[in-house]
Structure to design on (150 residues):
């Protein structure tokens, strides 16, 4: 499936039979300096990712697949996140806290990782892992009167 979050999201959604209801698949990844930063395999890998992100702006890209009987929508949401400049001891403390485990880009903005961030441009919840504004819009458009305010 490659490194495309939209492809990953579609694979997740297509693997579930939702019957008559909608099925959602989402996959989120981090891209910085031309590199895809998946989930770090070790504390050392997490530290390397955080060093790369330090003082830079990166993209958090989510693929979203919303599907139902006879229809499917594929979308991409991009949020820009700027990290402040981090010193070695800050990275060491963050890695030691273990919050990096299982996280794309080796951080969780909704936890201790918030202290690493200088600025967010776009949907904050996309960085958490669910492009909520996009999802609400899609549900409101697809199911007016049932989701959203239509």
């Amino acid at each position: 499936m490659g490194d495309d979050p939209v492809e990953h999201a579609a694979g997740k959604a297509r693997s579930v039979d939702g019957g008559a209801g909608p099925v959602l698949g989402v996959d989120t990844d981090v891209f910085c300096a031309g590199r895809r930063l998946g989930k770090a395999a070790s504390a050392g890998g997490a530290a390397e990712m955080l060093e790369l992100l330090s003082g830079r702006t990166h993209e958090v890209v989510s693929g979203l697949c919303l599907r139902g009987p006879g229809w499917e929508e594929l979308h991409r949401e991009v949020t820009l996140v700027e990290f402040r400049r981090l010193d070695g001891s800050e990275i060491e403390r963050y890695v030691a806290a273990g919050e990096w485990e299982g996280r794309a880009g080796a951080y969780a903005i909704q936890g201790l990782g918030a202290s690493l961030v200088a600025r967010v441009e776009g949907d904050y919840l996309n960085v958490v892992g669910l492009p909520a504004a996009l999802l609400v819009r899609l549900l409101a458009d697809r199911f007016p009167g049932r989701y959203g305010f239509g």
